[in-house]
Amino acid sequence: MASKKKPISPAEVSPSYWPLSPAVIGALLGAWSLFVFYTYSQRIPFDGDYLMSMLDQFANMHWLHAYFFKELVSLLIAGWISWVAVEAGHRLLACMAPAESLTGFEDLAFSGGLGFALLSHLVLILGAARLWYPGVFWLMLATASLFFLIFRKSSFDISSTRFETSPGYWHRVWQIVAFGCFFIFLLGELTPEVFYDSLFYHIAIPNLYRISHRIYNTPTSLFSNYILTVQRLYGLALTLWDETTAKLIHGAMAVLLACTFLGLARRFLSKGTGWLSVVLFFSMPLVGINVMTTGIDVGWCFFQALAAAALIRALLQKERSWMALAGIFAGLSASCKYPGMTYLPMGCLLVFWYRKWDEKLDWKVALRDTIDFAVCAFCILIPIFMKNMIFHQNPLYPIGALHFGTPRLDPHYWGIFQTEATIPNLKVEFGSFESAWRYLLHPWYLTMEGQSNGDFLGPLYLMALPFLFLLRAPSPGYKILRRYTVLLWLVWMVTSKTPRYGLPILALFALLFAEILMQACREAWVRFIVLTVVLLGAGTNLYHYLTIAYGTGGWQVLGGLIPKDDYLEHMHATYPTPPYEGILWMNEHLPPHSKILFTGDARNYYTRWPVIPSSVHDPDPLMQWSHEAHDGSQLAAALRQQEVTHVYLNYAEAVRTESYGIYHWDPSQWLVFNDFWNHYVELIWKKEAGGRENPQAQYVYRILSEEEARVSHTPPPDPFQRWAKP
Questions:
Q1: CA–CA distance, 31 with 34 (Å, rounded to integer)
Q2: Mean per-residue pLDDT of the chain
């Protein structure tokens, strides 16, 4: 006799949180996902022939060569630094949250966040104490490692039972895709660094501190006054070894961010959302482009995701220790980038809102928790405020530098900064129906048009976005996360138009969208259609990321096809008119105690000499000092006062960026500069080459002494005449 199926009781059926039936929602989501994927594929198509061509080229790579073995050492050192960070952070975390109250992924993520923050602040202290030396850093890490190995009882627990995730077919699929993403990221991180912002800012500034063995004021570089929490970790890495180690530290933060997703999803969201959220976020081309550089955006995402996870737990469990942790990580997020400071008021608003109006608690309790959060965040920012007060008499410098602080910022250069920050002008955005429509529907336009390292989103987010507010919160954790993310999104909309500056918000959206997809895919046929489209979208994202990585050409160095020096001497995508050949010549030929003034190009990372840097966001020092001098000898004296012995000019880059108004002289100012040039400058090296593929116009000049200047000589040709006013 056939056995009868046991009827499912109403209590066993998980409730639906949609306003319509699951079948209708599933059909709508399936249709919308197919429409988005089709439209996206038409606008930014997949080219199978090009993919096969790339794979054929990748097949020529080989691994037994000096560069690869050197990068393996970078990998070992980055792993060592990360292990020390996790071990140190775990001991700090144990003081606030016992290990038994955490899953393995939560413990790993929070420990890593606290440990990296601790290392960054130790580097700050050592740099301020003029102890920025490799030996000091090696000793610090070796001592910590010995301590952790001796006192193993309190070490991080890696037992597999703490890292269990939900089983299932799609779970395995998302794991495979996620591991594929991180493997591709790893290969990208092992290639030479050519990211423009890194070469003049993210690792260039820490490199100058390394050369001088201390943290010091660099008033000619606006970006040196920015918040450098992640950059100090890069300084530690490149002091111990090289810039690849710094790139791998950024990659380690990406891994820890994935752990944050998995831990947060397991505690507050539905089964299966963890690995799906990892795929949604990390398959995004914008993320891959940034992970493989020494940018700081993924590190920023990591700290902000930790702040969100701690804040949700603090609000739900009413534990002040978690509120303190939420404030600490919110402060660390704000200390990664100035836009992150705008997130702090939203965190305070969320705490007060939830305590007062959701839980109906007393005003005093709501204020107490809000103050706990704000004070802990502020304490993390105190070292930054102190540094800027000491150097510039303005705790937020360069913010507000038009009106107070030293040196005051010229409105022209502040305007350049605002333009590149893409701060929207709401009056213009809503000035016409067309612009308002485009502004309000920016997710659609960004998805369908973005293809740069600042806005290449891919199609996955747009598939789930329309359903964000249709889903009733299936859990209190989801409710808080959605409210927090939307508040941050609104802040981003009025402070920037570049998705890269809102990447931490996109990280939180990945968790929300994963929950939406899981809640909508209750029917087997819906699950198959929607998740298959998501898988295809993730594959499309990875294809586009591969095309970008292929275009940069760094894989040829990793694969032993070309030497690193040859690669860095030639132009590539995101690496125009490179200064590397001139820097390499100066590294090999300038005498000891040389100091170089860079002009025409901000990218000074690969130098081993002290440098006076500048960028398009700053008055060029050579031009500025010529404006202040009365004659050529006074300009030469100003250079000697700054101990400048040589001037490096990348004329090709100066021409490429001349629209920023880098150089400007009136006739009387030009007479001063011309007097200086005719008497105090000697050309000692140049590289000139025409052609569109790799134009070169680099010059190295030596500053003559007063005795040498008095001797009659023929002055070198003056390339700055291009910018002289008649």
A1: 5
A2: 91
Cβ-based neighbour number of residue 434 at 10 Å: 8
Other CB atoms closer than 10 Å to residue 413's CB: what's the count? 20
575: β partners:
572
Which pLDDT score, from 0 to 100, does residue 98 have?
83
Structure confidence by residue, pLDDT tens digits, 111-153: 999 999 999 999 999 999 999 999 999 999 999 999 999 988 7
pTM of the model: 0.94
Torsion of CA 420, 424, 425, 430, to 10 degrees: 140
Say which amino acid occupies 677: W
Please state the domain extents for the chain: 24-152+169-311+319-328+453-552, 576-723
One-letter amino acid for residue 143 of the chain: T
Cβ within 8 Å of residue 691, ≥6 positions away: none
Tokens 């530690």, located at residue: 236
Contacts of 269 (CB under 8 A, 6+ apart): 474, 475, 477, 478, 511, 514, 515, 518
Q: Is the dihedral of CA 664, 666, 667, 669 positive or negative?
A: negative
Please choose, from the candidates 228, 206, 213, 204, the residue with its C-alpha nearest in 3D space to the C-alpha of residue 127: 213
Pull the structure tokens for residue 324.
């303190």
- Cβ distance 219 to 616 under 8 Å? no
| pLDDT at site 14 | 63
Cα(268)–Cα(685) distance, integer angstroms? 62
How many whole angstroms separate alpha carbon 587 and alpha carbon 585? 5
Give me the torsion for CA of 594, 595, 599, 601, rounded to 10°. Answer: 90
Tell me the per-residue pLDDT of 627-669, one tens digit each, with 9 for 90 and over: 999 999 999 999 999 999 999 999 999 999 999 988 999 999 9
Q: Give percent of the chain above pLDDT 70.
A: 96
Contact of 383 with 375, CB cutoff 8 Å = no
Question: End-to-end CA distance of the chain, in Å?
Answer: 105
| pLDDT single digits (tens) 74-90 | 999 999 999 999 999 99
Structure token pair of residue 343? 């997130």
The answer, yes or no, to whether residue 7 has pLDDT greater than 70, is no
What's the one-letter identity of residue 562?
I
Contact between residue 122 and residue 172 where contact means Cβ atoms under 8 Å apart = no
Q: CB–CB of 439/424 below 8 Å?
A: yes
Q: Which helix (H) or strand (E) is 183 found in, with range? A: helix 169-189
Query: How many residues appear in the chain?
Result: 726
Which helix (H) or strand (E) covers residue 689, if one does? strand 681-689
DSSP 236-247: HHHHHS-HHHHH
Q: Decide if pLDDT at 160 tops 70.
A: no
Give the span between the Cα atoms of 89 and 319, in whole angstroms: 20
Tell me how far apart the alpha carbons of residues 541 and 282 are, in angstroms, rounded to a whole number.
9
CA 715 – CA 699 distance, rounded (Å): 14
Q: Which residues pair with 147 in a beta bridge?
A: none
> Which residue is listed with tokens 């292929």?
550
Q: Is 661 left (phi over 0), alpha (psi -120 to 50) or beta?
A: left
pLDDT tens for each residue of 293-317: 999 999 999 999 999 999 999 999 9
